[in-house]
Specification:
It comes from marine sediment metagenome. This is Tetrapyrrole biosynthesis uroporphyrinogen III synthase domain-containing protein. InterPro entries: 4pyrrol_syn_uPrphyn_synt_sf, 4pyrrol_synth_uPrphyn_synth, UROS/Hem4. α3 runs parallel beside α5. With 131 residues, the chain is an alpha/beta fold. It contains six helices and five strands, in the order βαβαβααβαβα.
């Protein structure tokens, strides 16, 4: 953790999703923290009636799909075929490199990736395509 104080001996409780990567925990431990890593929730994909959404994508009635996490991409593409998105005019925006890599692993093209990995950064990345 470049730029952070020495965390040697500091006790940190890391609350996260069951699906989250170990990256932050590993960085905290490398910085010397005594880590208690607790998964406090699980993201569950909700199946919904998706025929209207499929139709809107196919008919170019949606300009952007935004993905703020790998789990949002996983849930979306459990219901919508990747070839439908890739063959349409819809653009794909990702909040950051982890989400982008997950999308690429699903064979989805990523049109824009936020440089600041926040919702504001995601919106700024989309807005930047119109400047």
């Amino acid at each position: 953790l470049i730029g952070f104080a020495n965390l040697k001996g500091k006790k940190i409780l890391l609350l996260r999703s069951q699906l989250a990567s170990n990256e932050l925990g590993e960085l905290l431990e490398q910085a010397g923290a005594q880590l208690d890593d607790v998964a406090v929730y699980t993201a569950v994909t909700e199946k919904s009636e998706s025929s209207r959404l499929k139709e809107k994508i196919a008919d170019s009635k949606i300009d952007w799909l935004t993905f703020a996490s790998p789990s949002s991409a996983k849930g979306f593409f459990a219901q919508i075929r990747s070839d439908l998105v890739n063959s349409s005019n819809v653009k794909v925006a990702s909040i950051g490199p982890v989400t982008s890599q997950h999308l690429k692993n699903l064979s989805i093209r990523v049109d824009v990736e936020a440089t600041e990995h926040t919702i504001d950064g995601l919106l700024a990345a989309i807005e930047g395509t119109y400047e």
